[in-house]
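Action item from last meeting closed. Structure (525 res):
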C-alpha cells in the first residue's frame, strides 16, 4: 500500500488532514476465468469485503448463519401485543463522521447518505446532576480539548491543577502503529489514574466512552482508550456528533446493499453456517456448510476465503479446520475472549416522553444504565408507531454486565432507572417490550493485543476481517470492521492483479508538529 496522502475533498469529511491510502493498482476485471472467494460472515466486515471483491469481477459467495445480513447490526421482524409489526435489533449504534470507509460502503446504495439522520447533540448525564454536551464544543483539536474542559461542569480549576501533564502528553501524538507497545499492558482505568483525571469527568465522559467497547475500564486495554481519544477527540476535527439510520437497519442499510451485491453476481447464502475449511485437491479450499433451513449441507471449492466472523465464530471455524494457518496462529485465535454480556431493553410506551428529551443520552451514576435512546424521535418505523398510538419507543442499554446477573432482574432495574432519568415515563404503561441479552463482542483485554489477528494470516489465500482485527490504521468499532473488510479483500485482489479499494482514515498521528514534539520530549514513556 502506498504512503498516505491528503484525502480528496469530495470523498473525505470536513477534516483537511484526513489521509487517503491508495490501493495497489491493477486491472478492473480478471482477464480469464474469475477467481472464486468465500466470505464467511455477513456483518459490516463481510459485506465490505464482498463488495470490493465483486466490484472487480470476483465470483463471491457470502455466507451468514443468521437469517439476514448485518451481523451485530442485523434486525428481524416481530409482532407487538397490540398487533403492530415492527423490527427489533440489538440496539443503537452511532455512525460517526470519522467513519469514512463505512460511509463509503453505504454510499454504494445511498450516494448522498440521505438515509442517515444527524442527531443535534451527544449529551452525557450523571446521577449527581452533572450534564455535559458536545454540541457547542469546537471540533478541531486542540481547541476541542480546550473547549470541552472549559465548558464541562466536571472540570474545576483545582481538578486541572491536580492533573499529571506528563502522563497526558502522549495522547497528543497517538500513532496506531506504536500504541500497543506503549499502552497495551495498562488498563484504561490505570491510564486515567496516571493522568489524574477528575473523578467527575472520568465518570461523565471517559467511562461512558470506554464502555462503548462493551467492557469495564478496569479490563479494557488502555491502547484502545488512547486510540479512541485520538479518533474521536484529539486527532480528528470531525467532532463527536454523529448520525443514525432513519429506518431500522435492514430497511435502511442491509437490504439495499444485499440487492447491490446480488446485482454484482454475489451469491448470498443467509441462514447458512460454515462449519470449517479443508484444503481442496489441486489447491484452494473446501468450505464446509452445515445443513440448515435454507438448504442442505455440503462444501464449495474456492480459491480464497475471507473470515469475517465474531470472536466465537472465528474460534469455532479455526478449531474445526486443522489445516488452517499454523500452530502459533491457531493458538492465538484460541485465546481470544468475548467481552462481558450486555442487555438491550426496548420499550413501547403508551404515552410520549417529554418533547425536549434528546434522541440519545449517555448516562453514568444510574446503576447499570449506560444510555437511553428515544427511537421514536428519529427512526421512521418507531416514529410512525408513536404517531399512531400517541406513545413512544425507548431503548435502554447496560454494558459489561456480570455473567451471573439475572437478565430479568436487570431489565427491571433498567426500567426503574429510566423513571429516574425521565420521570414522565413512570406513569406510562408498557405496551410491549423486547429484552436482548447477548455476549458476542470482542474483548480488548489488557495485554492481549498480540493475540488479536491481523488481516493477513500464514496462508495468503485466507484473510481475516472484523472489529476484533488488529491493524496499523487509526480505526475502531464499526469503522474497523468496514476498513478491515476492504483490507481483507484488497489482499486477495493484489494477488490476482486486480485493482483494490482506496481507503481513508483520520490523521495517523498527532495533528500539530509542535504538540508532537512536546509529547515526545516531555511525555511519560
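Sequence:
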Amino acid at each position: 500500500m502506498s504512503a498516505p496522502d491528503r484525502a480528496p475533498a469530495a470523498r473525505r469529511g470536513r477534516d483537511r488532514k484526513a489521509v487517503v491510502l491508495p490501493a495497489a493498482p491493477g486491472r478492473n476485471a480478471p482477464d480469464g476465468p474469475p477467481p472464486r472467494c468465500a466470505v464467511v460472515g455477513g456483518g459490516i466486515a463481510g459485506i465490505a469485503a464482498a463488495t470490493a471483491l465483486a466490484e472487480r469481477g470476483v465470483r463471491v459467495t457470502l455466507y451468514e448463519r443468521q437469517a439476514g445480513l448485518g451481523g451485530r447490526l442485523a434486525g428481524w421482524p416481530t409482532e407487538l401485543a397490540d398487533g403492530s409489526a415492527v423490527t427489533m435489533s440489538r440496539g443503537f449504534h452511532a455512525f460517526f463522521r470519522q467513519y469514512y470507509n463505512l460511509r463509503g460502503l453505504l454510499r454504494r446504495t445511498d450516494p448522498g447518505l440521505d438515509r442517515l439522520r444527524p442527531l443535534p447533540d451527544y449529551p452525557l448525564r450523571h446521577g449527581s446532576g452533572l450534564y455535559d454536551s458536545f454540541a457547542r464544543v469546537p471540533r478541531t483539536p486542540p481547541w476541542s480539548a480546550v473547549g470541552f474542559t472549559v465548558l464541562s461542569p466536571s472540570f474545576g480549576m483545582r481538578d486541572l491543577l491536580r492533573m499529571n501533564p506528563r502522563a497526558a502528553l502522549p495522547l497528543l501524538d497517538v500513532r496506531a502503529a506504536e500504541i500497543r507497545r506503549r499502552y497495551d499492558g495498562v488498563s484504561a482505568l490505570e491510564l486515567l489514574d496516571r493522568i489524574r483525571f477528575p473523578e467527575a469527568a472520568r465518570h461523565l465522559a471517559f467511562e461512558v466512552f470506554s464502555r462503548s467497547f462493551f467492557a469495564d475500564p478496569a479490563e479494557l486495554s488502555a491502547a484502545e482508550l488512547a486510540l479512541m481519544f485520538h479518533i474521536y477527540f484529539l486527532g480528528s476535527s470531525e467532532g463527536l456528533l454523529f448520525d443514525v439510520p432513519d429506518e431500522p437497519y435492514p430497511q435502511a442499510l442491509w437490504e439495499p446493499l444485499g440487492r447491490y451485491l446480488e446485482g454484482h453476481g454475489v451469491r448470498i447464502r443467509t441462514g447458512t453456517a460454515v462449519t470449517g475449511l479443508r484444503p481442496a485437491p489441486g489447491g484452494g479450499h473446501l468450505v464446509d456448510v452445515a445443513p440448515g433451513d435454507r438448504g442442505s449441507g455440503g462444501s464449495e471449492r474456492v480459491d480464497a476465503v475471507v473470515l469475517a466472523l465474531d470472536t466465537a465464530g472465528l474460534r469455532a471455524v479455526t478449531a474445526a479446520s486443522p489445516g488452517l494457518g499454523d500452530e502459533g496462529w491457531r493458538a492465538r485465535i484460541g485465546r481470544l475472549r468475548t467481552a462481558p454480556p450486555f442487555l438491550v431493553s426496548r420499550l413501547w410506551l403508551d404515552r410520549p416522553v417529554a418533547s425536549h428529551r434528546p434522541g440519545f443520552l449517555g448516562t453514568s451514576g444510574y446503576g447499570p444504565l449506560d444510555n437511553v435512546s428515544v427511537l421514536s424521535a428519529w427512526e421512521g418505523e418507531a416514529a410512525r408507531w408513536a404517531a399512531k398510538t400517541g406513545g413512544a419507543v425507548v431503548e435502554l442499554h447496560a454494558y459489561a454486565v456480570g455473567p451471573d446477573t439475572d437478565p430479568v432482574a436487570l431489565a427491571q432495574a433498567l426500567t426503574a432507572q429510566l423513571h429516574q432519568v425521565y420521570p414522565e415515563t413512570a406513569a406510562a404503561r408498557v405496551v410491549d417490550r423486547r429484552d436482548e441479552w447477548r455476549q458476542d463482542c470482542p474483548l480488548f483485554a489488557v495485554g492481549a493485543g498480540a493475540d488479536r489477528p491481523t488481516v493477513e494470516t500464514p496462508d495468503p489465500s485466507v484473510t481475516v476481517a472484523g472489529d476484533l482485527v488488529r491493524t496499523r490504521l487509526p480505526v475502531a468499532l464499526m469503522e474497523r470492521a468496514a476498513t478491515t473488510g476492504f483490507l481483507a479483500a484488497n489482499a486477495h485482489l493484489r494477488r490476482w492483479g486486480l485493482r483494490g479499494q482506496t481507503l481513508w482514515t483520520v490523521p495517523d498521528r498527532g495533528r500539530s508538529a509542535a504538540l508532537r514534539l512536546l509529547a515526545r520530549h516531555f511525555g511519560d514513556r
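Note appended to the action item: Residues 477-495 form the longest helix (19 residues).
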